[in-house]
Records
---
Amino acid sequence: MKVVTTDEMQRIEQACVQMGITTDILMENAGRAVAEEVRRILGKIDKQPILFLIGPGNNGGDGLVAARYLGEWGAKVSLYLLSKRAPDDPNLKPVRERGLNCVDAAKSLDGLEESLASSGAVVDALFGTGKGRPLEGLFREALEKVSQAKKEHPALHVFALDLPSGLDADTGKADPACLYADDTITLGFPKPGLFSASGVERAGRIKVVDIGIPAHLAGPVSNELMTGEWAQSALPRRPLEANKGSFGRILVVAGSINYIGAAYLACSGAMRVGAGLVTLATAASLQPILASKLTEVTYLPLPESSPGIVAPEAVSVIQSELERYQVLLFGCGLGQSPSAIDFTKSLLLEKKAALPALILDADALNILAGIPDWWQKLAADAIITPHPGEMARLAKSSIDEVQADRSGVATQKAAEWRKTVVLKGAYTVVAAPAGRSRVSPFANPGLASAGTGDVLAGAIAGLVAQGLSLFDGAALGVYLHGKAGDIVKAVMGDTGMTAGDLLPVLPLAIKRLKGSAQPL
């Protein structure tokens, strides 16, 4: 499913009109789809008081259509019209004819507080997609009243139509008056701003509804939302005649005296998505500790500069083994000691031997961030998996700058560095050097705990080892990791979830995908 910018959406709508799918048709489809989703979420709506804030333009028109349908289905609908609409407006006229309560609020919001206090839900249909639209006057005042009503009555269910008013559809920058919605029902295609840091906070749960736009019109769009249908199609084949060599060999270079668990989690993540053979290269004194828990991997003990710290001369040990592996996962829990820094630079940047498909995580990224023009020294494509802090260090920017435009930053840096970038966080972004990108549909605070990134890095390595491209392997790893997190959350909640909880659930996520494509 494509993620479209404001300009792209406008071009798609213009193409619809040229095909005979008029704005009125799209608006009718959108309004009905929104009404159906509101009814699904609220459940029983008969005599349920639902208040609509209606703005100018198409977003307000969509809201009028949705209000009409909900009124016909038995809801007790009230509409506050915050801008003047023509008396013969094709969407306003049938609302009035059906006797729905329409308040002309273009001059005053008298009575809105009382109406909100008696409502079970409110629908923000003021502004849809658009850039730089300030919230002023009555619009700001109305939204502030909704926010206050939500504080006083937490059960008030706040819906946003297409996106919360005041949230920039492209960048996700939010006006201070922008609502914190419980649910955002977005039309046709998701918008990039919904997956920004502000979008995560303001949009709540995101549902994309079909409004009758032919999918092929979004064909040229390079940004996509990962879906269950896509993930199902991307899963590696598992032929009956396979052996462990059929599913790839991975060398994992990970772990140090302070981060022993990172090696365990990375190797386990690779095995749990179906990798054929995983070898852990780690400091020799750590091998007996890890062997007591990691019984399915093989080991390549490495020389140490001090207990639990890999020595630079370990490079020659690894290089002598590299040709046996399709994938090298490097960096999880490696540490940033001077010895680890020398080891990393020597292995990755000095071109002593060809490297297999490369996934770089955690300390590998922090070490590279201290090397000028590191991406030019690491010439081939690789997958890098930074969280926002690591991305800020790599890009020489701030975390706030990264989070302000996650998709834009990931896409720009993937092209500049010629690397596949996995920018982790809520709605993880995967960007390829050629310009394509995919956004994860998952935002789960349970995944914000130590070690979940190591599981993700391992899962990505396991999928690349089974023959997926770097871009597809990274994206499918992100999807399965997020899906596993949602499965765990459904059972135990998002408080207290640990990285280890994901491991036995990864095969279950794959099994469910094989059974049928999962909805978002």
---
Amino acid sequence: MKQGLSLRVSQHLALTPQLQQSIRLLQLSTLELSSEVDQMLDDNPFLERNAEEAERESFGLEQLDTPVSTSDREAESATYSAADYPDSTRAKAENDVEDSGVTSDDGPSWEGDGSVSLGPDDSEWGSEAPAKGNNLTGDDEMDATELARNQESLQSYLHRQALALRLSAEDSAALRFLIESLNDDGYLEDDLTELARGLAGDDDEEQLAQLVHHFTVALNLLQSLEPIGVGARGLAECLTLQLKALLVLSDTELELDPEVIEVALAICRQPMDLLARRDIKHLIPLCGAGDTAIRAAITLIGRLEPKPGRRFVDVERNVVVPDVLVVKVGNGATAKFQVRLNPEVMPRLRVHDIYANALKGHKAGGSEASSALALQQRLQEARWFIKNIQQRFDTILRVSTAIVERQKSFFVHGELAMRPLVLREIADELGLHESTISRVTTAKYMATPYGTFELKYFFGSGLGTESGGNASSTAVRALIKQFVAAESPKKPLSDNQISDMLKEQGIECARRTVAKYREGLRIAPASLRKEL
């Protein structure tokens, strides 16, 4: 075989470190972005938080709202296609914005900051990284975690009650151990013997028996604390503890029939699936009670709390901090909706002026040249990080504004007026790739007059109507919820009946589709919604 050399000229799109970082930051949620910023602040000495609001960096991002040319749209589409499919990064691009030889396999290179020329100093990077068009003032600040600051945990509440008990050191320690072993619902999932074996081991049987004894005493004490039902090993025991507490109070404080409570206790001694199915036919012989008593007992059980620790669950974990705020301006037909970014989620970052100026004025030579080059790359990395954060928030704001414009009927009339919308429509309108819209709408939230929703909530497929148009699946779900809310408790609507009611509204929706939407709304079947 004859060997030889040949030259070949070709064009390909390279995923540079800057582009990879931009894509990654775009798909991060608010919490993930905060962690990313903290990590970058720890790693990069040229990056610092800026407590004061400074002028926005002036170049590069002001072109975001200009019309997108066909060639730029093709280049952007090829870019994000390459990000989604790494094996097909080679693509023809007439107007490459990056014409360097760096590929995703090479070492990171942060040379250049994307601008035509740099200012005389780095003060231009002293920006809080707001997106263009953000006109929020200090009066509009929102602290979504304010609700969770004074939240007391279940463990703290139980420990505080335990202080009033006169216990030996061993029983007190056992009670504290069991309290800390509870799950978020207030259940003790682990067996007492297994808990004791984890402390004593398998060899010392005498110590194991002592620990089991102390845990048994502590469990009885734990189950006597508030909320009633805490420390149960299962749903049946949890309901039983609450029913026994009601039985004690029924003669004095509550107007409850003790016989109904006794029947409810008998039901809790049966398999829980019978109660879940409301299988009255099988419960009557098992509990030795009549039809009326069984129905009254099931109704009583339905008023109990199956998760005693529910109200103590850390609220902060359930708080959603919106990335975008929608504010209604004006009333009536002239009402407009202003889209703003939430200042609480935007990191205020800038390049450290002292370090940057010191590096710029330092002329290194010889052995110090490599160190100076490494520091220069860290400086460029800090600049690109700020720029990519700005790009992220600008894109979120543009996409959110386009969604509000398309779904204006929702913001005026509610979810019944939601229009069908797909990612492609927003992508075509903004000149972005569909994968970019998908990244922007994932784990990003919008606070509206009707509540806080994920951006993906405003997208939905369409169902055919008699008029030849389409109805949004979100609007159909809202109709189903409305039908169920207005139904008779003694004769709830079946999926077939709901399907027929939708057809009367001009919406073609099969029974299986109704069942899928109903399950997505967490609405029980008609047999379980029926009032006994």
---
Amino acid sequence: MDNLEITGSVSDGMRGARQKELDALYRISQILGAGSRQQEMLAEVLDILHSDLDMGRGMIVLLSPDGQELTVEASHDVPEPRRRQVRYRKDEGVVGRVVGSGKPVIVPRISQEPLFLDRLHRRRDNSDKEFSFICVPIAIGSETVGALAADRVYDPATTLDEDLRVLTIVASMIAHDVQSRRLAASERQALEEENLRLRTELADRFRPENIMGNSNAMREVYRAISQVSGSDTTVLIRGESGTGKELVAHAIHYSSPRAKGPFIKVNCAALSENLLESELFGHEKGAFTGAIQARKGRIEEAEGGTLFLDEVGDFSPATQVRLLRVLQEREFERVGSNKTQKANVRIVAATNRDLEQGIADGTFRHDLYYRLNVFPIFLPPLRDRRDDILLLADFFVERYAQRLSKDVRRISTPAINMMVVYHWPGNVRELENCIERAVLLSTDGVIRAHHLPPTLQTSDASETVGTGTLQARVDVYERDIVVDALKRCEGNMAAAARELGTTARILRYKVAHLNIDPKRYARSAGRRGEATA
């Protein structure tokens, strides 16, 4: 009878332990299925192992993306700053061996295992108790991506096989979650890359052929052009003088359904009030002194096409009223006529003036402003798109080398430095004029610093002028010559010395004195420098 009672109590105990395990595994599956943040989720799993199954000091490590290091993703009762400091190399210690081999390990007594590093919880420092340690791999198929570990107080009468089985089940559940997150991250990255590729293709597709620039600011301009060009919406192009507002107007017209129609430009700042009205609206014979015959205005000439009003901020108040009627009613009369005509034109206006200030000063009508400012496009100044300076400079070098029949192939590094740091108050127009001058002055196929206008050469930040002494200026000039020779000879000192008509010894002295590193220009490095120069 006593034996039956003992057997019954053991069976009841085993059933109770199994039930606790099942309950714990069920709770863990719910946590992993919730899809919360990974670190928080893994920390909850370790808490359940501790509270429900008496497995203490749990930790979960995962391989870094390069597969060489193990990082602690979650740990029980360890502050986050300390957890982040702990790292394991693959195959290092018990945990590293488990990840490296893909096989579980049971350490009955950690004090007798030399491979046990005890970096995270420091059991040996904080307790006189002996512990057993169980570590199982977290594997996705045949690939081990991490490990799950926990310990128990050492009991020589207790087997750890059941703990190993439970941890193996939990590790497989964690592996499934890790795999799902990896797939989701991979799909998200693929979508982001595809989105970036499509955006780049669209940007290239809608980039007008007559405009140069790859900077983010110019890509916004290209996007705006592509959005508005397919409609008849009135466009107001704003930006400083020389930024290329007329080029944008051309791009809008030739990308629109009106591309086969005329593109008519009127420079509003170049004409007086009377002449501007006649230029815009036309006039009848005898409308004013000198009107010996009737004449079409620019609005009539632009019939079916686009009328570009440059410097629209210079309109007189009377002309503003008449233009407002064209925008509102698409109607106008010639000067000296009462006959109303229809205007089938698209209006694209441009200005470098502060129209809002003009409204406040009473020099610009607010109702005309709102009619013009339906779709504004802001052109950035050149100083805000410095990434485009070299691209534009190379384009102008090629253009003017061809026009002036000059064999100019590149721009020297000091000249590039000067252009990049200069503030360009005249914007692209000023850059074009500078390059035309430099191409004209160049005698050896290279645009050098002294070929650029004095306004650029006075820049301190460019380091293209000395401190004012004769020796400093000579050093700058010599450095320019030596660097160019090294670039052409791909860093070969002997070849550069022969090209310069001097000896290798003298050239080495110059290189040391001028603090030049010939290795920068050797082979592929030299080609890269020349290509960007």
---
Amino acid sequence: MIKKVVLAVFIISLSFSNLYSQGRVTGNFVMEGQYYQQDSSIGTTEFPKQMAAQGFLNVRYHIDDFEFGIRYEAYRPPLLGIDSRFENSGFPFIYGTYRSSDLDVTAGNFYEQFGSGLILRTYEEKALGVDNSLNGVRVNLRPDDGVELTALMGTMRNFWTQSDGIIRGAKGKVYLDQYTDFFGDNGVSLEGGIVSKYEEDQENTYNLPENVFAYYLRSSFIANSFSLDAEYSYKINDPSAVNNFSYNVGQGLLLSGSYYTDGLGISLDFHRSDNMDFRAERSATGNIMNMNFIPPLSKQHTYRLTSLYPYATQLVGEIGMQADVTYKFAPETTLGGEYGTTVSVNYSRIHGIDSNKVNDFTYTSDFFAFGDRLFYQDLNFEISKRWSDDLKTNASFLTQIYDKDVAENGWAPIIGKVTSNIAILDVTYRLSETYALKMDLEHLWASQDSVLKTADFVNGNWMMALFELTISPHYYISFSDEFNYGNKFVDHQVHYYMGSFAYVTGGTRMQMSYGRQRSGIICVGGVCRFVPASNGLYFTVSTTF
């Protein structure tokens, strides 16, 4: 009902030429598609349709203190790896907002985050097929320069419908440094909030709570050379399909500290989450209707072979730490050279939590104890250096331990842990004012605990090479090849060739690629989805206005 009212107001506003002349229209458009070809040599699946295409158009109308927005989406059908339940088209996102100096009111669809997201984070990530926007009403109030208040109520998007669960929440933030000179020039804030999800109990086996309550508390301290953050969350028992109907409470803790000075940056992070999976419907699984988000505790790598064994945050329970040190040797020093040299070291280690079963529905857990099972470990080194005005390099080495059974196999004892070492050399050389050449060479050595009995396309050593030519300011041409030459099953050793061409002008980008895409896991911010192998022509067009 709210969306229909907002849409009516939006259309009426645009219909008046005098209003349109006073306002402005902004937006963006994205369309991507793929033509699939069967390729048994890489294990492609049977395609329901040989051609897939999806896209969206956002239009926002601004006038005085008001903003109206609408998004059209079409999945005809969605690309492989995106949930097939998205196949449809329509207007799933419609909103209207009033903004003033001390008040914002939004009706319709919106995204919101409380703190770091431990009890509430709604967002959109097309690459993952995630969109858990809320449909309802939100009010933001700023009664003073140092106070922010938010209240909201709504239901969550469930593909083309809405969740059965009703979400209500409120948060407040106070900037203490605005009210006293005690903290000097340092920034100090306190924040807290509550969220309640109501969902009827229609289960005959269990006595399920219909109102699930959660809260969080957060404090931040920011000085000239360091910062400290701490956040704690608590959720009452929330039996669901994901946690096997556990009646334990959920708890989360994030601790973060950073130190930064000329040329040096150090950060230390710790987090623990226990039974913090929070859904708009208790029957939801996968990446569907997640209400919250646990920030990842490992470095988010971007190179191709580093994505072969990416780690997804385990919302059911994990404990870990991360340390990151970056140092820039100044120019005109022995190690800095003429342009300076940047060295980074990052280490993360994540375990399961230490727990003891009490009965079929509850367990006990030592809050700060690391469990015996190692989920993930990553030690990586990176050296970035510019050698001249035209030449710069980036060299990396990583060693990782990845529990594939936890991350991909639903805890079934199939593969065990995979140990990998990765070496990367990234070189960019400017040939002229117009032309630049980029070369990316990668190699991955891998071994795993179990003896392989079933053929796959992932195991063993890999090598990868990419060459990209930039013709400034409009054209990009690239060619790459990934080769799993170390696969234990010789007939599964495959070259994954890919060629791409892109044209960029203003806010518009068009790209076309042809080749093979290996199967694997794609992750963004610790949230992952599986992408099946494919071969064919891929294209995308995007523009902003």
